[in-house]
Design goal:
heterodimer, A: mainly alpha, ABC transporter involved in vitamin B12 uptake, BtuC, 0% strand, B: alpha/beta, Rossmann fold, 2 domains, six-stranded parallel sheet, 11 helices, 42% helix, 19% strand
Chain lengths: 309, 363
């Protein structure tokens, strides 16, 4: 294997991991507020098709990203109304959101099946992008990849360095105490869920506009579920989400390169690897109660009734 | 008198009407044929289902008022397919085309319940009294595109994004390899299996991996345009499949193997209309007009185009068979000696790579 191939694999890995970074960071904030939204897959799909249609009509990446985020947020608003205002069960509502999003996105995309887009051009920084190895490895992505890193920094800063982040985490641990202190638990959870929806939508836009610049029914292909698993995998730590996302992306990419090199591993096993890895990590983490208790929001998935407190 | 004449006229007309209505069903088996199509994916702009839909549109054009067609797209293979096929039969469709391999058993099951309905199943191998099968000799087109690839490659590395290791796909890989080797013995074909018929994300990742490993002509046996788009982006050549995919990569796209169902669908519908249809297993190729190459890119030199055209002719008139001996397996064992050729049965059960394909097949 020559260094060039290795760089190509790494570059492809980062690109494959980026939609996961977006969706998982969004879901992390949602879960930190104590809400479990299993509708990530559906929100990503609706975000993907909304962004795709906008890109096909206007050609503006900024508009496509905005529309995709808006669509994701609207989807999550439906979830928020159901679970936060109407107090419906979060697990059932989240699953319903995924099923709904799958159908809605397919319906919206009828006229856009197999339409091709030009894709998103990679950044080209003078000098920097042309440094032999480093240039390709660090300065050769599209703008959305860099934005995902900016987002990561923002999320870390928000959760650990701001008062608002502290309030969000407090509500996720004990909504009762938060309520007693005078914070609007429902209001804050609404904001968190909307943020999660927008980020899932953005992850979807990345897939349909930049990664595979075309729309195909169900193109998110389980990445929403992987993003959900990643949050647990990362024990609710944003930096670990990034590591997990790239790990997952890496295995996805590696399976094709391994085949190309003629290494004799059945390709079915390779296709299975990323999911197997997720399950293994979940099992490994779940065995350690302290690990879960330290990081997992205590009130995750539990409906909060302000009137009863 | 006048009244009498009126009475006579009325009588005459009613007798005529009786005769005409009585005779039509005798002279024509069917007056107006309702034809149903079941598609496995959305029609889209290119690909397997798109080609079938072109055939459906052509059928409507050719037979005009005598047929009406209906299609149902994105029907998953399995239990859901059975329901859709049954609904079509129940709602009075006389002829139903089921266009994916996985519809085989559902089609046969429903066909038993509707003995007066005609079914045609694409790519299957089980027939019944009212179920015929039809498919294309894709490999003939693969051999021809192999010639183009073998002539156009500089790195002598050809790439193949493949769906599932079944004989149909393996046959295509082998035919492509033989075609390329016939003009350039130094070529090697790298295959990546994506375990999906239609997954643009995976197809793209696999294409990128192949290109990274030195492949400069890429083809695929999957349904999306992602490999062609990736080739265009990375500045290498591509060869499409199912449809002409040149609009997805005007620089990259050299040509494509396309399946043309137009004439076949019209022929079958006409036979059913005439009451002359019989269950058959059709395997048509270039000769039957069911396989055609997409227009060849201007970048391909004239002598290569001429060679492809000559080979097309000799395949069509039967003087040449893409799997003519000597054909050797990967490990060098002889499959068929010089002067002979593989039989259809050999082709239908093909489960080995020929010499020139790299790597081993997933078991």
């Amino acid at each position: 294997m020559n260094p060039d191939t290795l760089i190509n694999i790494l570059v492809a890995t980062i690109a494959a991991g980026t939609p996961l970074v977006y969706a998982a960071l969004g879901e992390l904030i949602v879960e930190k507020s104590g809400v479990l939204n299993l509708g990530v897959e559906g929100m990503m799909l609706v975000g993907a098709i909304s962004g795709f249609i906008t890109m096909a009509k206007t050609g503006s990446l900024l508009l496509a990203v905005s529309c995709g985020m808006l669509a994701g947020a609207l989807m999550s608003l439906a979830f928020a109304v159901l679970t936060l205002t109407l107090m419906a069960n979060q697990v059932a509502s989240g699953l319903a959101l995924t099923i709904f999003g799958t159908g809605l996105s397919a319906f919206m995309g009828i006229d856009y099946t197999s339409v091709a887009l030009g894709g998103v051009s990679k950044v080209d920084i003078p000098v920097l992008s042309h440094i032999p190895i480093l240039g390709r490895l660090v300065f050769s992505y599209d703008i959305l990849v860099y934005f995902s890193l900016v987002l990561l920094v923002c999320v870390i800063w928000f959760l650990y360095k701001t008062r608002a982040g502290l309030i969000l985490k407090a509500i996720g641990e004990s909504p009762k105490s938060g309520h007693a202190l005078g914070f609007s638990v429902i209001g804050i959870r609404y904001l968190a869920v909307l943020f999660g929806g927008a980020m899932a939508g953005l992850g979807g836009v990345y897939l349909s506009v930049a990664y595979t610049p075309m729309w195909v029914e169900g193109m998110v292909a389980g990445r929403g579920w992987v993003a959900l698993a990643l949050v647990v995998f990362a024990t609710w730590r944003p930096a670990r989400v990034l590591v997990g996302a790239y790990l997952f992306g890496g295995v996805t990419i590696a399976q094709f390169h391994i085949q190309g090199f003629g290494i004799e591993i059945p390709s079915q096993i390779l296709s299975m690897l990323p999911y197997l890895a997720t399950i293994l990590v979940l099992v490994f983490i779940s065995r350690d109660k302290n690990l879960i208790r330290l990081n997992s929001p205590a009130s995750l998935g539990i409906t909060f009734h302000p009137e009863n407190n | 008198m006048k009244q009498n004449r009126l009475l006579k006229t009325v009588l005459f007309i009613s007798v005529m009407a009786f005769i005409v209505t009585g005779f039509i069903p005798l002279s024509f088996a069917k007056d107006k044929l309702k034809v149903g199509f079941v598609y496995v994916s959305p029609i889209g702009d290119a690909g397997w289902t798109y080609q079938h839909d072109l055939g459906r549109i052509d059928l409507e054009k050719n037979l005009g008022d005598r047929v009406s067609t209906k299609f149902i797209e994105s029907v998953p293979e399995g239990a859901e397919a059975e329901r859709v096929i049954r609904d079509l039969a129940k709602s009075g469709h006389d002829l139903i085309f089921t266009t994916s391999f996985g519809y085989m058993n559902p089609t046969l099951k429903v066909a038993k319940l509707f003995p007066n309905t005609t079914f045609e199943h694409s790519t299957g191998y089980k027939q019944a009294k009212n179920v015929g099968t039809y498919m294309c000799r894709f490999y003939e087109g693969r051999y021809l595109t192999g010639i183009v690839a073998g002539k156009m490659t500089k790195s002598n590395q050809l790439g193949y994004v493949a769906a599932f290791p079944i004989p149909e796909v393996i046959r295509g890989i082998n035919a492509f390899t033989l075609g390329a080797k016939s003009v350039n013995p130094a070529i090697q074909v790298k295959v990546i299996w994506v375990n999906s018929w239609f997954d643009p994300g995976k197809e793209r990742e696999a294409s990128e991996a192949l290109i990274d490993q030195g492949v400069d002509v890429l083809t695929h046996h999957t349904d999306s345009t992602a490999p062609t788009m990736t080739a265009e982006e990375k500045g290498v050549y591509s060869i499409g499949y199912h449809s002409d995919m040149s609009k997805y990569g005007s620089n990259a796209h050299l040509t494509a193997t396309t399946h043309v169902w137009d004439a076949y669908y019209t022929k079958v519908a006409q036979e059913v209309l005439d009451g002359a249809w019989k269950s058959t297993a059709v395997w048509g190729g270039i000769k039957d007009g069911m396989i055609k190459l997409a227009p060849i890119n201007k970048k391909v030199p004239a002598d290569v185009v001429a060679l492809v055209e000559a080979t097309t002719k000799s395949i069509a008139d039967g003087s040449f068979h893409p799997f003519s001996g000597p054909v050797k397996k990967q490990d060098g064992t002889l499959v068929v000696a010089a002067g002979k050729q593989l039989t259809d049965d050999d082709l239908l059960g093909m489960n080995y790579y020929v010499e020139g394909v790299l790597g081993s097949m997933p078991k």
